[in-house]
Amino acid sequence: MNRPMLQSSRRQFLRGSGAMLALPVLESALPKWARAAEKAPQRLLFYFVPNGMHMPAWTPSTEGTDYELTPILKPLEKLRSELLVISGLSNLPGRPDGAGDHAGGTSAFLTCAHALKSETELRLGVSVDQLAASKLGQGTRFASLPLGMEGGASVGGCDSGYSCAYSQNISWIGPKTPLAKIAGPQLLFDLLFQDGAQTMGSAEKRNRHRQSVLDFVLRDAQSLRGRISRSDRDKLDEYMHSIREVEQRLQTLSTGCDAPGPPTDDVRIGEQLKAMSDLMVLALRCDLTRVMTFMLGNGGSNRPYDFLPNVKGAHHELSHHRNQPSIQAQLQTIDTWEVEQLGYLLNLLKTTKDRDGSTLLDSTLVIFASEVSDGNSHDHTGLPVLLAGRLGGTVRPGRHLRRNEPIANLYTSILNAVGVPSTKFGEDGTGPLQGLS
Amino acid sequence: MTTSGRSQAWALPIVLWATAQFVGCTEPTAPPDPGRVTLHRLNRDEYNHTVRDLLGTSQRPADQFPSDDIGFGFDNVAQVLSMSAPHVERYLRAAESLTDEVLRPDGYPLGLTLQVGDVEVRYRRRNHIFFASNSTLPLRVEVPATGSYSISVNAFGEQVPPEPAALIVAVDGVTIRTASITAVESNPQTVQLELPLTAGTHMVSFGFGNDLYVPDPDPQKTLDRNLGVFWFRLYGPTTAIPENSIRRRVITCTPSSADLTEWKHCADHILSRLARRAFRRAVTIDELSELRKLAEEAWRSGDDFQAGLRPALMATLLSPHFLFRVELDPDPTSRTPHQLNDFELASRLSYFLWSSMPDDELLRVAEQSSLADDKAVLLSQVARMLDDPKAESLLSRFASQWLQLEGVDAATPDAKRFPMWTDKLRTDMKQETRLFVREFLPLWGSRELGLTRLLTEPMTYLTTDLARHYGIPGPSPEVPWEATKLLGTPRHGLLTQGSVLTMTSYPGRTSPVKRGKWILEQLLCSPPAPPPPGVSTDLGSMSSSGSVRQRLEEHRRKPECAGCHRLMDPLGFGLESFDAVGAFRQNDDGQPIDSSGELPSGEPFNDSAGLATLLAQDPRLLSCAVRKLFTYAIGRAPTDADAGRVEALVTELSEHGGVMRRLVTALVLSDAFVSRRGEPEEGTVP
Asked: Which residues pair with B587 in a beta bridge?
């Protein structure tokens, strides 16, 4: 059968590049841009771990390129040249009013803003991932993906008079609106790939219906908007904004990644996390999104870690170690485990090739950090911050830097690197952080 | 409802109003501020319950929604329920999936056909699905029931001898059939197979498995094996052909001809019924005709009658009037209170008592405008609704969040220290507490005990296993969950139940602090201040030996700790006779248990029973229950302006021995429940 030229050339390209695809790739899983002669896009992943780090076992003792990997960072040895450790950064807006350091630190994590202490009224700031998404997110199926491992069904109030929203979300689309996160691999799988699997009706018809329905409810909301008062309008505006966004995204053609098999139903956290990492890398590779946030646990999470050797207890409890070596050792085990999980994801990024032979890690920047540094004293200075990747050549890894300045400045630099103008970020930013590249 | 009950009910709002006047308001002439509830998004439970009652579906779409944020310990506080694009993504898919279910014809519950128009562009060629290389198309299938299903595929190969093209069919990643397709495009063949599927989600995929491509400068000599599929069909279970009761419930008429007027008329009938229930109010002519226009548009593009209803059904399920509980203020900028209209009040009632939409009866009463004006009607509806099984949400949602019963699920007792701990025990403990707490709620068949007995009632519900764990005589295995008397045992009331004791312990030991904190926060609404930064909360670090109590006593001598621990610890000490999984004990780490103590007020107690008796008399127990139920019922926490109102409710509750039905009734009649107000624009002076 005679085939149009386009098809056969694409086919040849796939054959040519097939050997480089290290994942068990579904051949048709290459994104749209991979077929056109485009440069690989920049991508950001903000990776949150709760309760700080055992800092003595985290911070390298020397600066520069010859820094020595500390015990917690040891699992990343093979990725050393891709890492940029930055010590000394602070997030002072995360200091709470009175108690509530985890809520304060978590809410300020990507906003560098001071949360209004309230169980009902949310007031914070816009997070850096959302500003980045305003640029990087144009034209992908999802402007950004807010992800995590723990849902919101936490019991009771979350942290000393702060609404749970503050410690369960790091991505804030507006000062009053957290971007609700997708918790766990099953939900993420459904979101990313369920759409490719129809149950009834044709894809074209479905899209046509979606468009007309969304138009309809938007008109409906508009007419309601004129009849309600201020705070009701705020809620309705969230709705209308979300409808518009989804409507716009639906017009973005699917870039076409085949669905992988459904994620594992092994409920152990390690297995779930691996499945999540697989999907996150797939979402980047398929260009479904270019901006992600990920919470390994909610702020101040008290996940039990008794599946790790010699760890007896749960994370938040242990983080109040009161300088007891036996507890600090357990914390260090947890911290090292977290870094191992990060290592799994970084390895995937590093072994997944973009079309030009570079790796996903070359185009991506992973920002790994926590809401506090030491969990015992709830310190919001000297935060553990680890970057990995090159963000399309704008970041030069393989170093340990010391910078005693707000983490907001790091965000300013990242925003600038992805083409978002920013001179000062958050409430305490003073300007870009020098020396990233 | 008896006559005397009715007359009391009449009198009550006046009492409440007068009290609020006296306590809360600076301007004696102004009516009391009823407060306002922000536009209230349905939370996940409410969404699931609402579509269940609206359509009769057993789908629970909201299980896939982003989790709801929590305020004041409840997941239905309007102000913190936000919405973002991930929500709308899920709403959209839920609307599609629900509409699918409504429109599915009688016959096989699962019947799907895939043709060229249904797949992504790169798989399309002319009139068929085309595989140019080895790949498969996955379909995520919700299998409605376990049974035998049938798959048929109409396919052909672009052949390169000697092997015919290979069609692969796989389920959940496992190939179940590789079929040789010897046919060519002009005469395709149908492959058919039967396979067993269990109910639930499966990935069914089909595709091409033996690609061959040897290019040659002469296109005629190029070897290229490919696979084409005209259609793929999956249906079943082949053993049953039930009718779609959901369709019958929603699609209430069928046009007998192709006459457009008749179609419109019939669509109006269907859509007005559905929208009225979905929006929980009367629907205007304009709203109806807008909805119908969606169907007309689809008909014009070639859909048949029912298929054309699809966008209109979806729009109903995505409308702000469905996803939010809309309450309108006549003047949105005025602080002058006004009564809710009948429909708004009906929704408040049903989401309070049922966590779901009003039923037909309640909507009918609202339509007759008698709900807001006639207290007797309102109260008879409350009584009727409490007798409905849907009122169990007061247990599963309100009480379970109030007492944090889900906390038992998160408990992780140390297996070495507590080898007797099993998941069965965990489940039993949860169920014990559920059955026990139910006796305090105004639900059908409940004994409706007064809350003052919550901590002292010498009765509980046990299984054989749980009774053995507690070390007390229990029911025989044939009759689990028998009410069991506790007189003569060390147990009594909620505080000595395994659930509470376990979830307020550490994995390896008890925590009098956590237990005390739980009592203070959940039962007395008097949360202690959190520990100052840098302070240890770990007992292992203090002295190496001694009972938990001894180590805590040492802790408490520190002045920076004493302030709060003086409040928390004694409460926990009273429960020290029960270990970290709720078993009775007489020793801790070799030391005899001392469960005596003294409340901050100076009242001494000897053991848990003494503690419970003192707590049962603490006025904060009832006022806390009032604050919790207020928050849950209205979707906002009481503020200073509600002080008088809360006080009147506490009085009502305590005058009636803490019986919750009195509180529910009084709350429903209070002006915070039945009225609201607007609010000035930002920056303007009220």
From this structure: B592
Q: CB B123: neighbour CB atoms within 10 A?
A: 20
B330: exposed, middle or buried (Cβ count in 10 Å: 0-12, 13-18, 19+): exposed
Half-sphere exposure of A299 (CA within 13 A, CB side): 30
- ipTM surpassing 0.85, yes or no? no
Q: Which of B71, B203, B301 comes nearest A119 by C-beta?
A: B71
Instruction: Choose among A328, A304, A326: nearest CA to A316.
Output: A304
Rounded alpha-carbon distances, angstroms, from residue A129 to A108, A110, A242, A293, A396: 13, 7, 17, 7, 20
Which residues from A are below 8 Å from B157, CB to CB? none
| Closest-CA residue to B59 (of A47, A316, A199) | A199
A6 at interface of B, judged by CB pairs closer than 8 A:
no
Residue of B666, B498, B521 whose CA lies nearest to B583: B498
Interface contact A191, partner B, CB < 8 A: yes
With beta carbons less than 8 A apart as the criterion, state whether A306 and A315 touch: no
Q: Say if CB A136 and CB A44 are below 8 A apart.
A: yes
Model pLDDT for residues B287-330, shown as the tens digit of each residue: 999 999 999 999 998 888 998 999 999 999 999 999 999 999 99
Portion 21-60 of A in contact with B at CB < 8 A: 26-28
Q: What is the DSSP string of A240-304?
A: HHHHHHHHHHHHSPP------PPPP---SHHHHHHHHHHHHHHHHHTTS-SEEEEESS-TT---B
Chain B residues touching residue A156 (CB < 8 angstroms): 70, 73, 401, 404, 521-522
pLDDT digits (tens, 9 = 90+) for B530-581: 766 656 555 544 444 567 788 777 777 777 778 788 888 899 999 999 999 9
**Contact, A158 vs A168, CB < 8 A?**
yes
Low-confidence ranges of chain B (pLDDT < 50): 1-28, 540-544, 686
> Is there a contact between A119 and B637 if contact means CB atoms under 8 Å apart?
yes
Query: How close, in Å, is residue A77 to chain B by CA atoms?
Result: 33
pLDDT digits (tens, 9 = 90+) for A85-141: 999 999 999 999 888 899 999 999 999 999 998 877 788 999 999 999 999 988 788
What distance in Å separates residue B84's CA from the closest CA in chain A?
5
For A303, which residue in chain B has the nearest alpha carbon? B410
Separation of alpha carbons B189 and B178, rounded Å: 14
A193 interaction partners in chain B (CB closer than 8 Å): 138, 140
According to the model, what pLDDT value does residue A33 have? 44
Question: CA B212, CA B162: separation in Å to the nearest integer?
Answer: 11
* Polymer length of chain A: 437
For B416, name the nearest residue in chain A, comparing CA atoms only: A312
H or E stretch at B655: helix B643-655
Span A188-222, pLDDT tens digits: 887 787 654 444 456 667 778 888 999 999 999 99
Residues on chain B touching A224 (C-beta within 8 angstroms): 320-321, 326
The CA radius of gyration of chain A, in Å to the nearest whole number, is: 22
- B395-416 pLDDT, tens digit each: 999 999 999 988 888 888 888 8
Contacts of B39 in chain A (CB under 8 A): 228, 231-232, 235-236
Determine whether the interchain pair B538/A324 forms a contact, defined as Cβ–Cβ distance below 8 Å. yes
Chain A residues with CB under 8 Å of B104 CB are: 200
Q: What residue spans of B104-169 are helical by DSSP H?
A: none
- State the Cα–Cα distance between residues B481 and B466, nearest whole angstrom: 10
Name the nearest CA neighbour of A338 among A408, A391, A406, A277.
A277
Torsion, CA B396, CA B397, CA B399, CA B404, rounded to 10: 100
Shortest Cα–Cα distance, A144 to chain B (Å) = 10
Q: Which of A14, A165, A193 sits opposite B69 (nearest CB)?
A: A165
